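Hey, resending since the last one bounced:
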Amino acid sequence: MSEEEKYPYATLENDGYELDLIEAENRQKQGFLEEPIPADDERFAVEEGDIVKLVFHYAKPFKVEGKSHSLEHMWAVVTNTDDGIIVGYLDNQPQYTKLLTPGQEINFHPEHIIAIWRGE
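The structure tokens again:
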């Protein structure tokens, strides 16, 4: 992959976290998800201003009261959907990492989205 074709999403190796990819055919097998995943047509149609929930997977689990936490669900506000990459900023204070901060820009794909909130 050339510099021009750089992978646009966070990786465990480079960033210490990655976003979980929830594919349509596997969404029912995701035991950690309590609510149904939006249909693909909804996930691929998010627009600027939509608020979406993503699953962050950390390379180094965070320990709290003897329990390890390697996943965290957080909200992001969509700011751009051009070029097949969704860009947004983190709208939460992470509880299990210091790698991320509120307002931080994040690139993601529609299949990273597990929930959509449009203020309705």
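The longest helix spans residues 12-15.

Sorry for the duplicate.
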